[in-house]
């Protein structure tokens, strides 16, 4: 019996933030994701989610998150339903908690991408099925599973590694802070003073996280360099101010030269070439962004099996 079949699942397991998982559970999901990827590539048929349904609620746009969850459910024999506010009763004012109670009667697991993190928390607060955060204004935990899978695949592990974040202290950066604490790596965040990550996450991870306004200091000797768009969904009104403040934090080849020779570049995508990253870096030999994007599929299959209390793939 795997160590995650431990509580009979009397209460649903949620994944709203990285530390809803223990460090061991996070690692186990990465190992399972790697096994699921190998199995899928070898043509193995795995039907662990037969007759299971995932409901996905997207308040914001998505390419990767939607396709990876939908394809992942299909690959495991299940089905996914996409709901957007414009084509569901959510757009006509049905409360999110009523929606959670209704979906709990019909489907097995729910994934939400919302403007406000509190919407996902409200849904999870009354849900009797597992709830997954598919990105909020505060966090993007599914991205962390795929990012860490990518680092494990390329470098073996991340414990003790030096990771540099360049750019805005946004939802993905907050998630990386939580992950640094959980998997015990050193994260140096280079960002302008007025675009720092949420202090509540930083203050919980002081042994693992350092803030600087010097991009070169963050990149020096790093094993992994990470960035994201300067303007996240919902922040469009601040775009001009952000571009001005964040331009010195672009990941380009001079910055990559300061990192370790074997350093890899990660970006959750979508990317803006010429803003947060130069084309030569994202399209260059140190970039692992396509592997990273592809790993969303396998990491989330492992997550779904875990949340539904199924045995871990190995
Ligand atoms: N990285 C990511 O979540 O991409 P999408 O916005 O396309 O889902
Ligand atoms: N920080 C970005 C990530 C997109 C996947 C945003 O929230 O728009």
Briefly, what CATH class of the largest domain? Alpha Beta
Oligomer: single chain
Per DSSP E runs of 2 or more residues, the count of β-strands stands at 9
- Given the C-alpha coordinates, what overall shape results? globular
> How many independent structural domains?
2
Spatial ordering of strands, largest sheet: 7-6-5-8-9
By CATH, the superfamily of the largest domain comes out as: Aspartate/ornithine carbamoyltransferase
CATH architecture of the largest domain: 3-Layer(aba) Sandwich
What molecules are bound to this protein? phosphoric acid mono(formamide)ester, norvaline
| SS strand fraction | 5-15%
Q: How helical, in percent, are the residues? A: 40-55%
Number of helices: 12
Summary, kept brief:
The chain is α/β, with parallel strands linked by helices and 314 residues long. The protein is 40% helix and 13% strand.
């Amino acid at each position: 019996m795997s160590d995650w079949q431990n509580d009979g699942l009397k209460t649903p397991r949620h994944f709203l933030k990285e530390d809803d998982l223990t460090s061991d559970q996070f690692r186990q999901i990465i190992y399972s994701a790697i096994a699921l990827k190998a199995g899928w590539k070898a043509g193995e048929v795995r039907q662990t989610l037969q007759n299971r349904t995932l409901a996905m609620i997207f308040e914001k746009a998505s390419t990767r998150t939607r396709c990876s969850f939908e394809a992942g459910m299909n690959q495991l024999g299940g089905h996914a339903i996409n709901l957007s506010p414009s084509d569901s009763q959510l757009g006509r004012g049905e409360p999110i908690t009523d929606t959670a109670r209704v979906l709990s009667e019909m489907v097995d697991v729910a994934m939400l991408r919302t403007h406000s993190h509190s919407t996902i928390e409200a849904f999870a607060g009354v849900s009797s099925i597992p709830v997954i955060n598919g990105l909020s204004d505060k966090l993007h935990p599914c991205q962390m599973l795929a990012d860490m899978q990518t680092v494990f695949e390329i470098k073996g592990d991340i414990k003790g590694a030096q990771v540099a974040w360049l750019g805005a202290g946004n939802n993905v950066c907050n998630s990386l802070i939580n992950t640094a604490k959980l998997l015990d790596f050193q994260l140096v965040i280079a960002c302008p003073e007025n675009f720092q990550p949420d202090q509540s996450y930083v203050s919980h991870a002081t042994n693992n996280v350092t803030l600087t306004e010097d991009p070169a200091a963050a990149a020096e000797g790093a094993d992994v360099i990470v960035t994201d768009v300067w303007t996240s969904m919902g922040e469009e009104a601040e775009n001009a101010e952000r571009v001005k403040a964040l331009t010195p934090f672009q990941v380009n080849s001079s910055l990559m030269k300061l990192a370790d020779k074997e350093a890899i570049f990660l970006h959750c995508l979508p990317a803006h070439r010429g803003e947060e990253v130069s084309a030569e870096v994202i399209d260059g030999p140190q970039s692992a962004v396509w592997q990273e994007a592809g790993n969303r599929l396998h990491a989330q299959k492992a997550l779904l099996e875990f949340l539904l209390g199924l045995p871990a793939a190995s």
